Amino acid sequence: MCLGIPGQVVDIVDAQQHLAKVDVNGIRRVISVRLLADEGLVVGDWVLVHVGFAMSKIDEAEAQVTLDQVQKMGADYTNEIDAYNSSEIA
Amino acid sequence: MKFVDEFRDPAAARALVRSITDLAGTDEFKFMEVCGGHTHTIYRHGIEHLLPPTVELVHGPGCPVCVIPMGRVDDAMSLAEQPGVIFTTFGDMMRVPGSRGNLIEAKARGADVRFVYSPLDALKIAVDNPDREVVFFAVGFETTAPSTAVTLVRARQLGVKNFTVFCNHVTIVPPIKAILESPDLRLDGFLGPGHVSTVVGTRPYRFVPEVYGKPMVVAGFEPLDILASVHMLLQQHRDGRCEVENQYTRVVKTEGNTQALKLMAETFELRPHFEWRGLGFISQSALKVHHDYSEFDAEEKFSMPGVRVADPKACQCGEVLKGVIKPWECKVFGTACTPETPIGTCMVSPEGACAAYYNFGRLHRETAMLVGKNTTEA
Question: Which family does it belong to (chain A) (predicted)?
């Protein structure tokens, strides 16, 4: 449950509520970027996503390395992606 | 070195392993990886087979699913079974055994238990079902606690009246201290947790070298990160240094995530004490919902047994969580206790030492050499 999966910000949905649409492995969901309120996130930035929250900003190279790594986890990774796909936040 | 081929940069891995072997020399070193994510990487990539026999990695208490005591699972079950309640939880908690079975069984008996990806999903369920009481089973270290914190703030903002959190968040420093105080174990240093440290930073670990004289290196989750961190720990020993170092600088900042820490301080308060599976009661080691947010605290809104329940006698999760024994040394490992029918928590979560070892680690070094690299990809 402690997986952090890289995703790319594709849209700032609601700046006031700190909501952004993030693409994780082709799946796009709205997540909270409240924890990165100081980071000035913009479209194109990469973030580590954990339980529906962007927990840290990362560079693209780090994102790629981490993505390769977590994809090797097999079922744990696909379960996480399925869960991400099912997410619908308030 | 069959396993090295799986690495992103096999040459770098080989060089690191050579250097680790040189640095270790003939002395014996025992390092604890605190975080379950590291345990997973170590077994997944056979890192313990790459290290020289003089360098041993032992697993620590950093799997949040594994440390939840049975009594709290029983409380969760009782909440789930209250009429009108929708009980929401991360998938990993569904199979954790309490004394009356697990949440999957509670669901089969008719309780409305729903698996959610995010606490914000649980809040959405509350918004969509105003006539039901929605409880979120919050577990996790400082990695996950900020997400519950934001959810509490959001719940207040939205004026939601039917949403509460059953808070079981724990903090990383007290169990590290408990392990350092434990007479059972001699350690030469720690691999510090990566994602917890993105939130808390590296400063809270200063007591490890300053009070207990043990080095600590905050490590990333790639196999090369683990090897590099082991190398840094050995280098400290050889240089006569003892400090907190950060190997995972590309993600972890010294000061952590100040937004997350601020939100946690606003929405949580420290419990005077909390029971950890295997480690017993540890003072100021867990969070409860802050009294300013008590309308969202399931422990205030509902009554539950709150009874301490001893672990099954056969289960040795406690010793595994403290690094005293390896998973395969437990009497029920792989026989009575498997990922399908876990007795102890360490077999439940993929980050639990027993489940990680069961899934990936059972290939012995010599056997691996004999059968070749294909088997390591199983």
Answer: Belongs to the HupF/HypC family.
Distances (CA, A) of B144 to B231, B273, B283: 29, 20, 20
How far is A73 from B153, CA to CA, in rounded Å? 34
Q: How many CB pairs under 8 A join A and B?
A: 126
A56 CB neighbours in chain B (<8 A) are: 198, 251, 257
CB A47 within 8 A of CB A34: no
- Evaluate if residue B376 carries a pLDDT over 50: no
Q: What would the pLDDT profile of B276-327 be if each residue is shown by its tens digit? A: 987 889 999 999 999 999 999 999 999 999 888 888 888 888 888 888 888 8
Residues 6+ apart with CB under 8 A from B216: B189, B190, B191, B192, B205, B208, B209, B243, B244, B245
Phi-psi region of B112 (alpha: psi -120 to 50; beta: other; left: phi over 0): beta
**Angstrom distance (rounded) from CA B189 to CA B29:** 9
Residues from chain B contacting residue A58 (CB–CB below 8 Å): 250-251
Ranges of chain A with pLDDT below 70: 1-2, 73, 90
Tens digit of each residue's pLDDT (9 = 90 or more) over A13-39: 999 999 999 999 899 999 999 999 999
3-state secondary structure of B353: helix
CA–CA distance, A40 with A42 (Å, rounded to integer): 6
Tokens 């309120």, located at residue: A37
CB count, 10 Å around CB of B212? 16
pLDDT in tens, B97-151: 899 899 999 999 999 999 999 999 999 999 999 999 999 999 999 999 999 999 9
Cβ pair A39, A54 in contact under 8 A: no
**What is the assigned CATH class of domain A5-86?**
mainly beta
**Closest residue by Cα to residue B205 from B25, B34, B58, B3:** B34
ipTM entry: 0.89
Q: Do A35 and B263 touch (CB under 8 A)?
A: yes
CA distance B120 to chain A (A): 5
| Half-sphere exposure for A47 (CA within 13 Å, toward CB) | 30
